[in-house]
Amino acid sequence: MNSTKFFFVIIILLIFLVIPPSSLSIALDAITPNQPLRDGDVLLSTTKIFALGFFSPGNSHNRYLGVWYNKIPIQTIVWTANRDNPVIPTAGAGLLAIHGNHGGLVIYGKDQNTPLWSANVTVSSPNNSVIAQLWDTGNLVLLENNGSNARVLWQGFDYPTDTVLPSMKIGLNRRSGLKWFLTSWKSQDDPGSGNFSYEIDPAEFPQFFFYKGRRTKWFRVGTWTGQRLSGVPGFVPNSFRSFVNDKDEIYTMFHVTDSSVFVRAVLDESGIAKRFVWRDHENKWIESSSSPSEWCDYYEQCGPNGNCDPYSNYNFSCLCLPGFEPKSPQDWYLKDGLGGCLRKSGASTCQKGEGFVKVARVKVPDSSGARVNMSLSLKGCEQECMKNCSCMAYASADEREGGKGCVTWYGDLIDTRTYSNVGQDLYVRVDAVTLAQFANGSVISKKARLAISLLSALVFLGLVFLLCWLVRRKSKAWRQRKYMFFMEDRTDLDDQSKINSELQFFDLTTVAAATDNFSVANKLGKGGFGTVYKGVLHNGKEVAVKRLSKNSGQGIEEFKNEVMIIAKLQHRNLVKIIGCCIEDEEKMLIYEYVLNKSLDFFIFGLGLVERRQCLGNR
Ligand SMILES: *[C@@H]1O[C@H](CO)[C@@H](O)[C@H](O)[C@H]1NC(C)=O
Ligand SMILES: *[C@@H]1O[C@H](CO)[C@@H](O)[C@H](O)[C@H]1NC(C)=O
Ligand SMILES: *[C@@H]1O[C@H](CO)[C@@H](O)[C@H](O)[C@H]1NC(C)=O
Ligand SMILES: *[C@@H]1O[C@H](CO)[C@@H](O)[C@H](O)[C@H]1NC(C)=O
Ligand SMILES: *[C@@H]1O[C@H](CO)[C@@H](O)[C@H](O)[C@H]1NC(C)=O
Ligand SMILES: *[C@@H]1O[C@H](CO)[C@@H](O)[C@H](O)[C@H]1NC(C)=O
Ligand SMILES: *[C@@H]1O[C@H](CO)[C@@H](O)[C@H](O)[C@H]1NC(C)=O
Ligand SMILES: *[C@@H]1O[C@H](CO)[C@@H](O)[C@H](O)[C@H]1NC(C)=O
């Protein structure tokens, strides 16, 4: 019996040894100079919505002081204090306290003399009491109380990490110079300051940006349109956004219509901001929106004076604004829009007769150098812009009530994009010729253009293949598979051949020699239906050779593809075709090579290069 008692005592002792009393965590409602928070304790907000304490993110063992939702089973960190100075986990390390002398908040690791992190404050009198509280918004607040009045000395919401919560500001305190901005985490395991930030550019027409590596513009969240930020087209259910710009501060903030719904937006380590809503019955976070989300959202995809239009009829989203043309048609053809557009050659915009062309439903250009006058109407805005030769465009500053105020842009127009159903109207200054083109209605509807180009493409290709076939038939016995498609109307063949007597038939060896045996160095582009090579004929003439894929073995299919692609094209004057080559399984079209002359040629090359990956290229 005695031995059993002894054994029992040992067990009790062991339990006390294994679980030291300090790890029995306490839930605090305030931190005072006498009541610090140790690793393991939590500070709860007034109605226990949020909790503050030490945590380890992901697979890391490091300890960080952070705020999370107390009631949500998946630990979701919304704020971190010592993000770049973690507490290295050792026994007794990790303490959040109010500093005895200066009254600020400090975090200590193992060494209780040198803080790892501190919130610097100035207490008005050493006699005043200082406490830290966690508010129900998720804001950690340090308060100074002089007996009759409490004053906020410092607050966590002034130093957001990667998450915006309702009523958190992103902007600038003009009086103190403090910027409210987000910085992404380094990784899921490391809340340290990452590569992306979300902050304000407090220009004359203020706008918000996602930056990569602090200063590279990554995504333009845009300007306040009166209802939303210009780069974020959607309205998010259960929430709305406000914008304040006065002499003291300038910021944007989002609010929830139902405070019992948890909503947060996170700028993640890949530079994408995602908004989440907590669904109680599903017990998970639902992603309700993300930005940037489309290729055109990324900053300046189409270069200066370009317009990124994901709804364009081309297989490439970059277009030029009215009155402009691609700076490098070759890059454009390779689906690289970064070079942007130049004024059409010979077009002057500072003489009589010029005017403005409306580009509808856009995210208006980067307003870094733009000017604003809120007392001007749209008409007055036009006059204001017309007065100054370097004014390139204008728009209403506020889209409410049919448009109020005036923004004018000077110099290149950067980062314009088109939306399908929201967006503002931008009025771009154009030369007299362009203005007349737009005014005369020569810009026919998309459907009509599509129909016309489809028709002309069909006729054109029909002709080409027919003639190739004819030439081929005359020069050699036709041993290959018969293309019934072309063989139906034999009676016309002789007439047709007369029309296109210029069309040459090339044999494979000639084409192979011209293109250096289809060498990679001569390759201009590639796509599902074939490859285009540059070549030089023995008479010195430069040609472009489109070699249709032979592995498909489907001549008719290839042909159909070609027609489909040409149907997508809106340019009227196609590049000159010189001839063709059909030998065994090879089918080739030979065009005149016109560098720097006609965009149409390159467009006729068509969709050869896959769309540039936005992430890979930035
Ligand atoms: C407080 O001041 C110290 C020393 O000036 C500085 O290293 C630290 O970053 C400041 N802390 C915060 C949160 O600004
Ligand atoms: C602080 O309190 C002491 C004692 O009550 C008083 O003598 C002193 O003047 C107070 N200091 C300030 C700055 O109010
Ligand atoms: C406490 O501070 C407020 C404002 O900061 C001031 O009006 C008030 O007189 C102070 N009270 C005492 C007891 O110092
Ligand atoms: C930040 O960017 C640099 C340079 O692009 C890269 O080397 C580094 O890995 C990035 N850091 C993170 C945390 O992604
Ligand atoms: C704005 O326009 C009005 C009307 O033309 C003008 O009187 C005023 O000076 C302008 N303000 C600025 C800042 O240019
Ligand atoms: C036109 O605008 C530019 C850029 O803001 C400015 O530097 C220039 O002085 C203006 N010219 C006139 C004539 O107002
Ligand atoms: C536009 O129409 C006017 C008159 O109808 C004509 O004089 C002008 O040449 C036309 N411009 C273009 C570019 O078609
Ligand atoms: C158009 O682009 C998409 C995506 O880049 C691609 O999947 C598709 O095959 C392209 N179509 C043509 C006709 O090039």
Textual characterization of the structure:
This protein is an alpha+beta fold. It contains 10 helices and 40 strands. The strands form 9 sheets. Strands 26-25-33-29-34-31-32-30 form an 8-stranded mixed β-sheet. Helix 5 packs antiparallel against helix 9 (555-567). The chain starts with a helix and ends in a 13-residue tail after the last helix. Residues 146-149, 151 line the site of one 2-acetamido-2-deoxy-beta-D-glucopyranose (NAG). Residues 373, 375-376, 380 line the site of one 2-acetamido-2-deoxy-beta-D-glucopyranose.
Q: Which characteristics define this entry?
A:
618 residues; alpha+beta; Agglutinin, subunit A; 4 domains; 8-stranded mixed β-sheet; 6-stranded mixed β-sheet; 10 helices; disordered C terminus; binds 2-acetamido-2-deoxy-beta-D-glucopyranose
Class per helix and strand makeup: alpha+beta
How many domains, as an integer?
4
- Tell me the helix content: 10-25%
- Low-pLDDT windows of residues: 442-446, 477-501, 563-573, 596-618
Compounds present? 2-acetamido-2-deoxy-beta-D-glucopyranose
Strand content: 25-35%
DSSP summary: helix tally: 10
Radius of gyration in whole Å, from Cα?
34 Å
In whole angstroms, how far apart are the ends? 77 Å
Tell me, what's the shape?
elongated
Mean pLDDT, all residues: 81
The total strand number stands at 40
Strand order of the largest sheet: 26-25-33-29-34-31-32-30
Please give the largest β-sheet. Answer: 8 strands, mixed
